[in-house]
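Saturday, quiet lab. Running sequence design on the structure tokens for the scaffold JK sent over.
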């Protein structure tokens, strides 16, 4: 009998990311996003979230 080791669960998050959104982008937008990801060493999702947060903060001022 082969025993399969159970994967350990990571730390639970306060804000689980369970919603998936799609966006249409031009080639130029994708190039900008890719460059931001490369320079900041962040994922596309993280860069987009950061951008949303910055726009939201400007609206709140």
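Result came back. Writing it out in full:
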């Amino acid at each position: 009998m082969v025993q399969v080791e159970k994967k350990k669960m990571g730390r639970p998050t306060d804000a689980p990311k369970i919603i998936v959104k799609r966006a249409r982008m031009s080639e130029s937008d994708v190039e900008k996003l890719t460059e931001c990801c490369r320079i900041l060493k962040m994922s596309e999702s993280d860069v987009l979230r950061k951008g949303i947060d910055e726009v939201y903060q400007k609206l709140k001022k």
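Notes for JK: Helices lie at 27-40, 44-60. Residues 27-60 form one domain. Ask whether to fix the surface positions before the next round.
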